[in-house]
Hints:
By secondary structure, the protein is an alpha/beta fold. It contains 17 helices and 20 strands.
Amino acid sequence: MNIALAQLNYHIGNFEHNTKKIIDSIEQAKAKGADLVVFAELAVCGYPARDFLEFDEFIQLCETAALEIASKCHGIACIIGLPVKNDILAGKDLYNAAYFIEDGHIKNIVKKALLPTYDVFDEYRYFEPANHFECIRFKGQKIALTICEDLWNINNNPLYASSPMDELIRQKPDLMINIAASPFSYCHDEERVVVLSDNAKKYKLPLLYVNQVGAQTEIIFDGGSMVFDKKGQLVDEMPYFKEELRLYELENGHFKNHSPIEHVAAPDIEQIHDALVLGIKDYFEKSGFSKAVLGLSGGIDSAIVCALACRALGSENVMAVLMPSKYSSDHSIDDALALVKNIGCKQEIIPIAAAADAFDQMMAPAFQGLPFNLTEENIQARCRGIIVMAMSNKFGYILLNTSNKSECAVGYGTLYGDMCGAIGVIGDVYKIQVYELAHYINKDGIVIPENSIVKPPSAELRPGQKDSDSLPDYDILDKILFQYIELKQSSAAIIAQGYDEALVRRILKMVNNAEFKRYQTPPILRVSPKAFGMGRRMPIVGKYLS
């Protein structure tokens, strides 16, 4: 049997786009000699469709698209993922399902059983879990088809006495196929390889796994579709962050012309870079936008975002706005202009001193007798927010937010000022990782000016200000934040690792107190196992301090 895996970039709710892409791939696979071509989980509608799934018309459009795809599927079979209605009155209205299509007809419907509800997943909100499992018969062989978590959860869901594969293996299948929508995080590729390999070894069957690629707002899919032999040995791995269609010839349980290979993971920072570029690119293309604007301070955060945006959108489509205040140092402007020269984006210099002074004068009667403090600093940040939003409105640019994860975590940012934007580019990247990104971007030559990398970080909102005036050193801060956010460790557990007790409690309190700010920030491109946003849901007014 010749099986093609189609690793594609889908667009949620864009049925014309998704259907054409699937049909084109069916034709390509057929031309390559494929008997079967396999597409990803919920490929027809895109993943995650969220509350679109509650609209009857949306589900009908899925079915209409699937029938159109079936009408073009002759001389080849295909597997496509889509939501299907639950005709039984009990339970949820839908199943997360897959159609097996042959000779223009839907021959089998496979439904997902293990519905993830952790981190960014919320499938049980929409779908009923399957309780019946049956292999697909095709070309004299039996295919055990599973959907994402049904194979991922090799240790079984506690709700079930056995996993779907434990049921399917009793029917003596000849091979396993798993279709997935598995989001990217910088440590997830190694986990996937281990889990999939363990399944192939456990069930002693060849395994073909197809993942989708592309960004859906904050969630990024990295592809990396894979094929394993019955010993659990990896025999092929498709590219990451790119679309691809590959053909595999399976004969007597073996993949012809493929020998075992080693999974070689790209360095974390390279994966993060590629994911962020794809995240920006897809956010703009899928939203119908093409041009970006951001505030460029001369610091490392905005420099990184500007460089990534230029790689994603083209330098000609990026506008950097320099907004010096009376406290800005000369090198801030120089460093920002050096970056602009290096990457070739557009730039405007709009000083904010006059605007900030006007606000100070306007507020003077109300603030009479009170000292300069955070209030006046925030006015400067909000002046900048007004300017970049004005540029956005006037010229049709989309504003990129430049806050990093360390700042987002502890609330080191100004609402309606430097925290505004349409998409948070590095909001899931700790400050220490930002420096690593700078070095990665500079690996083939200077892009990020050296002074932006080596100078002490500062918001320059008062004379001589440095981030270290308000925050612990980032090498300490980020380690404590990682323990609390990614690893969900308590204060006691973190203190037990040797960190200063007062410092740990102060940092964790800052994280919890800043929750109200994070609720009002843009969606953040997810690159870690635990990003701010839909994958980390905390109460704003909660009293608990771990």
